[in-house]
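PROTEIN FOLDING TASK:
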Amino acid sequence: MKKLLLSTIAIIAIALTGLQAQNSIWSFPPYFAKFNPGMQPPQPFPAPDFGQPTPVHYAGLPAEYSHNAMQDKDGNLLFFIVDGIIYDKNGYYMTTMDVWSGSGEILIVPDPTDCHLYHIFYDGIAHVNLTSHPFYFLLDMNNPTGSSSVSLANFPGIVNGGNSFVKNWYNQYAASQLRADGSRYVFINKYDMVHIFKIDASGLSLITTYANANPNFPSNYSSSNANRSEMEVIEVISPITGSPAYRLALSYPSSNVSLGIKSNTVLNADIDFSTGNVISGSEEFTEYTYYNNEEAHVHGLEFSQDGNLLYILHEPTTTYNAVIDIHTVGTGNNIFFPLTISNPSDYQFSQMELGKDNKLYVVGENPSTGTRLATLSNTNTPNPVNWNSNALAVGYNYVYSNYFGGVSNNLLKLYPLPDQIDGMDYTAHFTTDPECCIAYTSFDVEADKNNQEYTGTATWSAGATNNPFGSVSGIVTVRDKLVIKQGANITINSMTFEFAVGARLIVENGARLTINGTTLTVYSDCGGNALMWQGVEVWGIGTGTFQAAVSGKFIAQSYSVIEHAIEGAVNFNHAANPSYANNGGIIQATTGTKFRNNVKDVVFNAFQSVFNGNPYNDQSYFNDVTFITDASLNDPTYNNSITHASLNEVTGINFTGCDFENTDVAGTTYPYLNRGQGILTYNSKFTVNARCLTLTIPCTSFDESNFTNLTEGIVALNTVRTQVAFVNKSNFNNNFKSIYIFNMEAAKITENDFDIGASVSTNFSYGLYLNNCSGYIVENNNLTTTYGGYVGVYVNNSGTAANEIYRNNFSNLIVGSQAASTNGDNMGNGVGLEFRCNTYESIVDYDILISSGMVADDHGNCLTVTGPSNNQFSYTTQYGDFWAVTSSVGVPTYRYSPPNGYNLEPRNTYYNSSNTATHECVNLAAFNPSNSCPNRQGGGRTMLMMSTELTTQEAEYDSINNLMSTKDTSLLTILEEDMAVVKSQMQRTRSYIIQELLLNSKNSDGKLEVIDFLQQHAAYNTNADEQALAQLLIAIGNIGAAQSKIAQLQSKPNNGQFVEFSNIAITLKQHPKQNNTLLTDSVLLQQVKDLANHPNENSAVASARALLVNLGLATYEETIEVVIPTGSTARLANEEEETNTINKDSFVTVFPNPANDKLTISHNLTTKDGIISLEIMDVMGRVLMNKIINNTNNQIDINQLSSGLYFYNIIQNNKMVQSGKLVVE
């Protein structure tokens, strides 16, 4: 454990200035008093057995012999001791020090190295010879029953040195503050000497013995003349040596040799801080001689706050009648003056202690006034006017020594005040180690207080009576959990809740919690590292239930803050069994709420709301919310794992006017490729949109959503393709990858602004990447870069359907838009992807690049004014305006309107004339942007209008199809061209309708509506439509209908892999653990892996890959094909920015991937550019391996890595050279 080591001078300075030192808890059994800051009225010790005598727990009885208590970090009761039995703060039995009750002081000394340990020193029973000596007990708060008492009479150096303890009723105890070496000294006075012990990490040891400390001690002194007194030790600067010293005071019975009579003597002396030896010339004696059988027993000793005065309290005699005398240290022997107070005999049986308020406390008794505490203020300058004889009533009984076997004897009567370590900050040993600090902090909400759960309807706010915690400031601390119980409706206004590490806030199913202007954060008063609380859990009762009726609801609004959590808010119960039993909680955040510096801000696990058999959208949403990382996480090992919103198999989560950002623009805390993700989804339908700021229709002012300085803005993975994404009116600024969508039908990306971040080496940045997607609408987006971004829109393998990238603006990019793999039906006059009505400005390499595979055979038509492609080229590219590397059947034709001064025609040599023809539609009117490329996102197309359009298109399709049997080849050519146009128009209209049904069906999630649509229009369904229908039937749990549809597809060509994955999906759907079944079913898992590894990309292969990625069992990096025409120089990303890239001729290869026992890294990097290293992290971002890989070929042993998904970085000279995912099998 960590130790706080103070310099010697600093320790002395603290002791002399009295910085609120001393124990905050004083015992007066059956009461105790607390300092806050002065002593508060006593309160009863907790008695769990309601005051009934019990041999186990505290029963509220006074002490007979001895007692003491210990405070916790916050000055509250931690444990207490009464007659040898130790009780916890609730009065429950912890342990017994031994069977002997003790008779003197009890000294409690915190261990200097372990906050759970306490060293307790006390007397045995005087009348039992075998126990008439001091005892030592080690209390372990984590295992209180595991200790036992040890007699110091047999301690090494005591018995062997002939210094054995003899008469225990003379034993007195004191201890030092923490020393500079992290140890503490313990002083024990026995009849003629003081033993000095040391407590450190090794335990208890004897340092030295101050012999002859009590000169003239009578060897035959009678027990009837014994006095029960105390010893005091304070830290000072010795006036003799000028060095730190311990100033010691003790009393003992003695004999006046010259007079032949007995006396009671007080010794004060300074002990060298380093050696433990008495400082020569510092010893002073104050002797109280007994005359006429009057014995001035000394019971109390205490130094003034500055240590220059010694207060002596004794029984009065005729000769010494003042009761309290004051000796000025350094003035010599027997020099003292009285403190003149009224009724001095009231205080004659009391000890003395300095309180936390720096007042001197004594106990007074009087039949008329009762037992009370008296105080003296300003102990450095004593004055009777500062004496308060009735400071506080205590109702305190005196105690007896156990010398007489429990028989009361007034000779040994005493009002002990609990012994303490003078000058010690009693909180310091808790706060030197954060773990200890947490363990011994008294939280406002904790199990011991039985106040973790809340029911009913209530509103909480700051104020002693405005919340159940009595928090005046509105700050409430929580140790483990705060639970809003089922049926409760709690509103919290303008408060702060601080949760200890690992603590959580739970909103049970059927409960409602609303926070307004409230902060939920981590408790940090104890300091330390990795301070992250667990977050908010909002429970439902599992999928298939009607969410609105049964789920818990958490509403955060009015600039509330949720920060420093592992997961800010989740819709499930981490402890649920089975794990999905409580999924479906409702999370709603609005009006300036902020999620700040969490590992994951919001997490949704699988849930589908169902009412009367119909699936409904989730009721969770986020409106005007900021998701931000503005500093290193409190636990920086998570810095590589930040995801602001994680959606796993949920439907209809809306983000409106929300900001997702990392403010570390310079990359000092978060490397460029580790800045976090905005939204990560799996099989989830969601929208990201702007927030309307006006009440007008249409809206005229918007608060757009923003994704800023992230590694990935949005990542959406699907196995159910109709779980659709809608991203509209949002800004993407300086993200490495803005939007990545994998295996989705009908995604809608419209009216967004992209300022694409820089590429890193051959890791190319992009604005939008559509991978295995179809039916998408990508319109009215502005894609540019001021950071050196690479490509605006990249479409990979969208299949054989008619798709469009329409009316977007591209500028300042290396490549404006690009298509790769299968993006068309590879038929003459066929259908496929078309780039239409886009505008390109200042593009470097290609405006439009078809790097592999096919797009639509013909780009545009000349039938209507809106038919041609009509892209406006930049005319700045060095390689191509419209460049197709490969060719489809026939010679594809690029069609455009009469330019009318616009750059509509690809420049000669800037299109691939070997496989592409260009054609100007001279039959059409000259190009006019508003007429030729109309805005289709203005909101004018209603469902009725689209349905009417589709009916017309289907009729045209039927009409043309009926004529296709003609033998007239010239007519057939015309019909084929017309059919291609109609098919494209019809498929696009269907995509619009499907999107509308999925995104805008009132309450419903749209699946049933799409099923109904596809069934009604089955005659025009493509094979992809039939596959989508089967997937939808599986998704809603209609397994019988799904199997029937799958059987139909199985009889048709090119459906084998789809059927295989659909059968896997049905198996998973019917298993309680669903997708997690793969983690335990090796046979089924291998089927998925085999399908995922198939080289032929299609929706089934994509679904298998998405499933493995979601489970962390595989990684599949998206690729961007680089095409350099013959004779050109290869371009790598950011050649200009040497600080972010490697040399363009450099390479790094990591293989195999997936790997098993060994991993090989090959590269041609040179060490002249700095040391080269490999860093491997787990999915939570924790660095597991860091290896130097300066050799060009390096084989790394990864045996210690278990199977799963990892991430790797190749680093040189503190710069990221390459990063990626690594799968270990």
